Amino acid sequence: QVQLVESGGGLVQAGGSLRLSCAASGLTFGNYAVGWFRQGPGKGREFVAAIRWRGGSMDYADSVKGRFTISRDNAKNTVYLQMNSLKPEDTAVYYCAADPLGSPIAAIRKSVYDYDYWGQGTQVTVSS
Question: I need a labelling partner for 86 at 20 to 30 A (CA). Which of 14, 36, 78, 95 fits?
């Protein structure tokens, strides 16, 4: 049984930092990409960042470039999202997801429909 479990969310003031973690079980990431998405109040789920497990290439949404960093720990089968300079508009439920890609040379994808496995989400609230 595949499980993705997020942790690290919370309440932080604007300008602060948080680090989210996504731990996987029942799944070896291999050719997968692991992404972070978020869903703010009254909004759709949007792409934040993703990393290819093999090779480590990354991609980010324009809204978080320069503030967020995605990374992985192979030994722990865990992906992290370091979030700095947080803004109130970053407030959302953050989800971790895994995309099987299907090819060792496939590019990172940003659509929710390409990701097969999802975590339960962790709330991030940024106060002004």
Answer: 78
The predicted-structure confidence for 35-48, as pLDDT tens digits, reads as follows: 999 999 999 999 99
Segment 74-96, tens digit of pLDDT? 889 999 999 999 999 999 999 99
CA distance linking residue 31 with residue 116, whole number of Å: 13
d(CA 117, CA 72): 17
Tokens coding 82: 């370091």
Cβ(38)–Cβ(93) below 8 Å: yes
**If we measure between CA atoms, which residue out of 11, 20, 35, 19 comes closest to residue 88?**
11
DSSP string, 24-58: EES---TT-EEEEEEE-TT--EEEEEEEETTT--E
Q: What is the DSSP letter of 8?
A: -
